[in-house]
C-alpha cells in the first residue's frame, strides 16, 4: 500500500503534506490516507483491493476508530471528576431552590434535577467517580483444609415463579444433583446453578440422605429468598447447539405422560405448533418454547428419538389393520361417513348430469368484455373427489398419507421462507369438509382476477363430450396413461367415479405456475402430504364451518351437489355431518394447515382468503427446512 508504483503524482503531492504535517492525528486520519491511496489501485482493478477498500471504507470501522481516538484523547488528559457526590449536591440544590422565589427558570431547573432519568444519570456518575464497581466480598479465610470441596452459595429470590431447575438422586452415591436447568427460568437467569451441581443445603437444611421429593417439598414451602449451598460441577455444560425450529406433527400433553421427569416443567403442544428447540443435550428430553410465547421460560418436550420410540411401541401394541396406524380411527370413521353417502346414492343417467354440468357449474363467465373459462369445477370431478377414499387406486395414496404419517417424524424442521418476487408462486390448497364452500370460495377468488388466479385442468379417462375441448374441461387420457402418471407419482390426487378415473397432476399445476399465475386447487386432506414438495411449496388453507345456528342461517339458500340431485338444499343433518367432519379433519390434519378461515359470511371469508393468499406469496412463512435447503443446493 505504501508503494508509489503507478500512483498519480498529483494525489501523492496532495497526500504528502497532510501525512507530514499531521503525523499524530489519530487512526481516523491514517485511515483516510490509506483509503485515498487505495483508491488509485481500485480504479486499476488490482486483485483484492476492492475488498480491502470496501472494508476500510465501512462506516462501522470509521465509527470504531473515532471512538478509539476519543478514548485515547481522554486517557491522555487524565480526567478527574469535579465531584464524587453529584447526587448529594443535586439534592442540596433542590432544597435551596425550594426556598428561592419562584420563577420559570427555577421551576424548570427543579424539574430537571428531580427527573428520575437525571437522578439515575447522577447515580451512575457517582458510581464511576467513586470507582465503586464491584460488590465487596469478605476476605477468604486462611487455612482452608486441602480436602474441603469448594462450595458455592446461591441466593435466589423466588417471586412466585418456578425455580426453573429439576433435581435427581445419583444412583451410586445417593447425592442430590441438579438434573437440568430450564432455559429462561430463574435458575438459568441467575447464571449460578448448573446441571450436575451437587446440592448440600437448602435454606440451611442439609439434604444429605433426603429423597428428591423431600427436597422439592422444602423448596415448595420456601417463600422469598432461597439459599442453596452447592458443590459446583467440575465442567459446567456449554450449550453450543444452534437454535432449531420445528413444527409439531403430533400433540403432547405432559399431564398425561407418566414418563416425563418433571410434569410441571413440561410444555404441552398441539399439532402444527411451531417450537423453538433451545436445548438438545439430553437425548430423551429436549427444552423448547412456542414461538407464540418466546418470552416465557422453556419447557420439557420428548425428543424426536423418544417420541419415535413411543410411536413404535404404540403401533406394535395395536391389532393389525391394513392401511391404518396410530391415527387410523379417524381415517376409518371418515371412510364410514363416505360409505353412508354411497348407500344413499341412486344410479342415474350420467348424461343428464354431464349435460347439466356446464350451466349449473357456471364454468364460463364474462369478465371485462372477454369470455373466460374456469377449469376444475366439473361435477364428476367433485363427486369423484368425495368418493375417492373408496377407489382402488386411492389405496396407494392412502398408503402415503396414512400409516406412513402415523409413524413419520414427530417433528418437522422448519425455517422462515419468503418467496422472492422472481420465484414461481406457491400453490394454494383449499381443504374443507364437503359443502363448506371450498369451491364457492375458489370460484370467487378466481373470478376476482382470472389473469392472476387459476385452477389446474384435471385429467380423466372418460371420453370427451361434443361440447368439450381437450385441455379445457379435462385432459382426456387413456387408462394406461393415467395409471402411469399415478405410478410415477405425478398425480396429486385421483380417484374413480362411475368407472372413470379422475385426478389432478403435478404437471397441470406447474403449467399454471409457469405462466406466473397463482394456482388455487382444492384437495382432500389425505392428499396434502403428496402435494407438500419443494417444487410446489403449497400453502394450505383449511375452510371451516361456523357453528350450527350460524350455518342454518347463512346456508338457507345454499345448494349441495349430490349424485342424484342437482340443487338440493342443506338439511340439518348435512350441516351436522359437515361440522363433525370438520372436527375430524382438524384433529387429524391440522399440522398441515398454514391458515384457517371460518366460512360464515361469504364476503368476509372471501376477503380473508384473498388476504391469506397475498400473505402466503409476499410475507415470510414457516416451511419445511428441506424445501429451502434443496433450493440452495440446486441453485
Ligand atoms: N358463506 C356462505 N354463505 C352462504 N352460502 C354459502 C357460503 N359458502 C358456500 N355457500 C354455498 O354452499 C353451497 C356449497 O358450497 P360449495 O359447492 O362451494 O361446497 P364445497 O365445499 O365445494 O363442497 P364439495 O366439496 O362437496 O363440492 C353452494 O351453494 C355455495 O354457494
UniProtKB/TrEMBL annotation:
It is found in: Cytoplasm. One of its GO terms (biological process) is intracellular protein localization. SUPFAM superfamilies: L27 domain (SSF101288), P-loop containing nucleoside triphosphate hydrolases (SSF52540), PDZ domain-like (SSF50156), SH3-domain (SSF50044). Its main location: cytoplasm. Residues 425-614 form the Guanylate kinase-like domain. It comes from the Eukaryota. Residues 568-619 form a coiled coil. InterPro entries: GK/Ca_channel_bsu, Guanylate_kin-like_dom, Guanylate_kinase_CS, L27_C, L27_dom, L27_dom_sf, MAGUK, MPP4_SH3. Residues 1-14 have a biased composition (Basic and acidic residues). The keyword ATP-binding does not apply. The keyword Repeat applies. GO terms for cellular component: actin cytoskeleton; adherens junction; cytosol; plasma membrane; protein-containing complex. Residues 1-23 are annotated as: Disordered. Residues 241-311 form the SH3 domain. Residues 153-234 form the PDZ domain. Keywords: Coiled coil, Cytoplasm, Repeat, SH3 domain. Residues 23-79, 86-136 form the L27 domain. May play a role in retinal photoreceptors development. Belongs to the MAGUK family. This is MAGUK p55 subfamily member 4.
